[in-house]
Design brief:
The chain is of the alpha/beta class and 417 residues long. The protein is built from twelve helices and 19 strands. The structure holds inosinic acid.
């Protein structure tokens, strides 16, 4: 399951629904920059680090491709215990990387330094943690299993990071003993969760079980295929699940793309279908479009089929879930971006390969009539008002992908098949 837009597509609710038919749910990339909100049995869950499978008590794994903030991880484990869920369902890959306190400080300081050019990150240390992983100086989850190794790695890392913090970013350095005291405590609590996620998933698949890979962030935030540099530092796209978990790509047989019936984006970067004028604030209010992690206002736009067609391509999406259709119920007219007009005036239905072309792309709208009635009564997609059905049908037709699920309300049971 992958986010098909810029994140916040309502993946948490869909993954929660699918988790009930799954034996294992796996996160394969990202860290506590994700914010999955799930309403189940009248209770609201807000998860950042753990797979959404925990809500339904399903075995939940965090793969090697993830970065883990121990503080957030352990706080969510405590939350499970409070809600009566056995935390032993959670398995954490020893190959995942730890987010260290300096990663968070560097993320914040580097955004401040960039000023107007900032990426608008969640400031959770994601980019700096992945940068250290790629530089081969990261500290991994498995390092918590040996106190001597962990202390040594913290020592080596701090010797370099403190120079950067003081001289480049002009912020306070970290004290080795403080960090050690905190992380030694975390290490002890993390150790029982560490396991071999690749083997666990392989064995589950060999036993004919259902494994669900839960993408965080989204296609347009993919490090390689998103709107770089306004992206996250991992690969949310479907093929990232294979590397992020440690299985072959041939083991993935279906890819469900989750797209909101409109589009939102947090952080900076181009956004052709962003709404101009007061309708943007209205859509934000109606959809409750404020960040789960940062509380930031999300930028809102009409549905962009050019970007969604690209998501179908780079993920190999086999079906779509269209979420939050009910949020559009009040609008008399619903513009949908069906093509981009390029700088030379030509129109294209393909996503521009180069950043400056995307920057200059202008939306070409097809305006659909709204249904202007609540969707509460519908029990199936066929039971939706005619205009709402046409809206869904346009998406399926334009993208040549079936729309399998349609979200029409916040709770778990308001997803129509
Ligand atoms: P980072 O992942 O914190 O480095 O942030 C990089 C970009 O990804 C920023 O534009 C963030 O707003 C965006 N981003 C990261 N996680 C999410 C998410 O869960 N939903 C939406 N946007 C996200």
């Amino acid at each position: 399951m992958v986010g098909a837009q810029w994140g916040d597509e309502g993946k948490g609710k869909i993954v929660d629904l699918l988790a009930q038919q799954s034996d294992v749910v796996c996160r394969y990339q990202g860290g506590p920059n994700a914010g999955h909100t799930i309403v189940a049995d009248g209770e609201t869950w807000k998860l950042r680090q753990l797979p959404s499978g925990v809500v339904s008590g399903t075995r939940s794994a965090i793969g090697a491709g993830c970065v883990v903030d121990p503080e957030v991880f352990l706080a969510e484990i405590d939350q499970l215990v409070e809600r009566g869920v056995d935390p032993a369902i959670v398995v954490l890959s020893g190959n995942a990387h730890l987010i260290m306190p300096w990663h968070v400080t560097i993320d914040q300081a580097s955004e401040r330094r960039l000023g107007k050019l900032q990426i608008g990150t969640t400031r959770r240390g994601i980019g700096p943690a992945y940068a250290d992983k790629a530089s081969r100086i990261g500290i991994r989850v498995q390092d918590v299993l040996d106190a001597k190794i962990l202390r040594q790695k913290i020592e080596v890392a701090l010797a370099e990071k403190n120079v950067w913090l003081e001289r480049v970013y002009e912020v306070e350095p970290f004290d080795l003993e403080d960090v050690w005291a905190r992380y030694a405590g975390y290490a002890e609590r993390l150790a029982p969760f560490v396991g071999d996620v690749s083997l666990l998933v392989d064995e589950a698949l060999r036993d004919g079980r259902n494994v669900l890979f839960e993408g965080a962030q989204a296609t347009m935030l993919d490090l390689d295929h998103g709107t770089y540099p306004f992206v996250t530092s991992s690969n949310p796209i479907a093929s990232g699940a294979a590397t992020g978990v440690g299985i072959g790509p041939t083991r993935i047989d279906r890819v469900l793309g989750v797209a909101k019936a409109y589009v939102t984006r947090v952080g900076e970067g181009p956004f052709p279908s962003e709404i101009e004028g007061p309708q943007q604030a209205r859509l934000r209010e109606l959809g409750g479009e404020y960040g789960t992690v940062t509380g930031r206002e999300r930028r809102c736009g009409w549905l962009d089929l050019v970007a969604l067609r690209y998501a179908v391509r780079v993920n190999g999406i086999t079906s779509l879930a269209l979420t939050k259709l009910d949020v559009l119920s009040e609008f008399a007219e619903l513009p949908v971006c069906v093509r981009y007009r390029q700088r030379d005036g030509a129109e294209t239905s393909h996503f521009p390969a180069h950043q400056s072309d995307f920057h200059h792309a202008e939306p070409v709208w097809q305006v659909l009539p709204g249904w202007q009635t609540p969707l509460d009564a519908a029990a199936t997609v066929d039971g939706l008002p005619t205009e709402a059905r046409h809206y869904v049908e346009l998406v399926a037709r334009e993208l040549d992908v079936p729309v399998e699920l349609v979200g029409v309300g916040a709770s778990r049971d308001r997803v129509l098949a």
